[in-house]
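Long-time lurker, first post. I've been practising inverse folding by hand and with some scripts of my own, and I keep getting stuck on stretches where the structure tokens seem ambiguous. Below is the full token string for one chain I'm working on. Before anyone asks, I'm not after the true native sequence, just a reasonable design that respects the backbone. If someone could post their per-position residues I'd love to compare against what I wrote down in my notebook.
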């Protein structure tokens, strides 16, 4: 316990009438260095207004932005063994899980929900990068499988939002086993004739990109997202060559035919809804009839 920080400073601030300023009140743009007020950034769905840089989003913010009027039903988190390998590095894996659950307010790195997007019923599955880098472990794998099963049971499409550094090292081979398990669940969705759309966000790497993240019917990516298997530095050291500028960005992958489109975050819900209507052969939503403007009475002629 630091008694200066925890005791002396609060006492001085209370005497002088100072107020503590939240650390995240201002956010710095990674590209331009511009400082953006947190509330303004949140209202703009965590896109820097001037530069257009797409910041990371929590699962909750992503779901609220995706679903009509921000309304959705969260699917229950699966119950799985905790710390099956009794893993420990600088601290116990069980302690890391506890800390991340307290920090993020979610059980693991995957949050799944059910609702409407453009009046089209879907199940959405979102990685939360704030939870151990969105890594894929037993709980996350089981949550993804249950999301696919829920989509099949409801006869509706599934939309995946990967944001991950890959498999969770603290679970070893048990983490890698989630790659074929989720791929089998994905295949069950396709056999049911239901669409599967992937919205690639920053970053999508490792085993996640080597499995369900790159097996969609349509691959959308947010601008500037890092997408790949191994990191740029690791590849350069392996092949002993300098990689091209912008390598592994969504724009680079679009240019080389690896994804289908790059879409601004604000336009993703509408784009997904239009694609799903094409897949499901649904009619376009009826235009909303606007009320006719009131007719103003003609001015009375002045009496002669």
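-- Answer (accepted) --
I ran through it position by position. Result:
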């Amino acid at each position: 316990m630091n008694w200066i920080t925890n005791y002396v400073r609060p006492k001085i601030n209370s005497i002088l009438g100072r107020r503590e300023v939240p650390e995240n009140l201002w956010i710095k743009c990674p590209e331009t260095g511009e400082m953006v007020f947190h509330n303004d950034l949140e209202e703009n769905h965590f896109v820097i207004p001037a530069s257009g840089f797409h910041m990371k989003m929590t699962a909750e913010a992503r779901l609220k932005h995706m679903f009509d009027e921000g309304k959705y039903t969260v699917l229950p988190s699966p119950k799985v063994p905790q710390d099956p390998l009794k893993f420990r590095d600088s601290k116990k894996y069980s302690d890391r899980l506890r800390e991340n659950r307290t920090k993020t307010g979610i059980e693991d790195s995957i949050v799944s929900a059910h609702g409407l997007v453009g009046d089209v019923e879907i199940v959405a599955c979102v990685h939360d990068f704030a939870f151990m880098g969105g890594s894929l472990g037993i709980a996350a794998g089981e949550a993804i499988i249950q999301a696919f099963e829920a989509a099949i049971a409801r006869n509706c499409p599934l939309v995946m939002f990967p944001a991950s550094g890959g498999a969770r090292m603290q679970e070893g081979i048990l983490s890698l086993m989630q790659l074929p398990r989720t791929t089998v669940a994905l295949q069950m969705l396709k056999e049911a004739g239901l669409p599967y759309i992937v919205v690639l966000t920053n970053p999508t790497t490792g085993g996640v990109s080597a499995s369900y993240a790159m097996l969609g019917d349509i691959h959308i990516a947010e601008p500037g997202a890092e997408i790949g298997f191994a990191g740029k530095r690791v590849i350069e050291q392996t092949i002993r060559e300098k990689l091209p500028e912008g390598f592994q960005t969504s724009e680079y992958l679009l240019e080389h035919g690896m994804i289908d489109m790059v879409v601004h975050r604000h336009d993703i819900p509408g784009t997904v809804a239009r694609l799903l209507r094409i897949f499901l052969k649904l009619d376009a939503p009826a235009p909303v009839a606007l009320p006719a403007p009131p007719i103003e009475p003609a001015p009375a002629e002045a009496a002669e």
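A couple of notes from the structure itself: The mean pLDDT is 90. The longest strand covers residues 110-117. Happy to go over any region you disagree with.
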